[in-house]
Amino acid sequence: MLRVASYNIRKSVGTDWRRRPLETLAVLNEIDADVVALQEVDRRFGTRASSLPRQAIREATRYVPVPLDARPGSLGWHGNAILVREGIEVVETTCLALPALEPRGAAIVDLAFGEARLRVVGMHLGLLGLWRRRQAAAVLAHLERLEPSMPTVLMGDLNEWNPEGRCFKLFARTHRVVMPGRSFPSRMPLGALDRFILSRDVTLVDAAVHVSNRSRGASDHLPVYADIAFAGSEAAGRHVRPLVSHA
């Protein structure tokens, strides 16, 4: 079993409006995922440098940032970053620009776990429904063109409050949309904005919102995680967790 996680870190600014990247990294250590998709990693103004220093990631976690086509000092692509546990092989990366009134993008990373392969998409969709639908369609169209096809996990902040939102329906035509639970705002969660979207060849074992004293204060979003299994994942060695029944 492999654990993936998604976390909108709001530029490492907590609910007390203080920027504390070490708190963000401490939350990631609590979740103990193998692959993490982060949103709002880079600062909004100036050089838009990463709010998570690379040196701090190296010293405080076992994660390695996936190299993306980002500006100098940045960690992500339009704020999206992917972290992988040390030892996981990055095979290929793609930075996809999405249609939007404001800059939006998706980071697509192909990973190898021994002989197994997994495609991960980190994304942060727009605030307006029309553009969310266009962005979802753009991501799906791009995935359809990629060769070879492989088990795929899409994750991120979809900014959709409506449980019957049209972007969910677009994804659900070919994928399974997973709602781990309410994740925003972190102090009193009302909206299930953070989701996982799984291709049909990925099995969901468990999914949840990570709630702790730290996660309630480290961002205005709570992180979410999913435990998954897919063909060949038994070859991932130490990265794969024992399969646990939650019946």
UniProtKB/TrEMBL annotation:
Per the record, its GO cellular-component terms are:
membrane
**SUPFAM superfamilies per the UniProt record, alphabetical:** DNase I-like (SSF56219)
Q: Which InterPro entries match?
A: Endo/exonu/phosph_ase_sf, Endo/exonuclease/phosphatase, GPI-anchor_lipid_remodeler
**What processes in GO biological process is this protein linked to?**
GPI anchor biosynthetic process
UniProt cross-references to Pfam families, sorted A to Z: Exo_endo_phos
Question: Out of the domains of life, which is the source?
Answer: Bacteria
Gene Ontology MF annotations: endonuclease activity
What positions does the domain Endonuclease/exonuclease/phosphatase occupy? 5-221
Q: Where are the transmembrane segments?
A: none
Q: Which UniProt keywords apply?
A: Endonuclease, Hydrolase, Nuclease
Mind telling me what this protein is named? Endonuclease
Name the species this protein comes from: Jiella pacifica
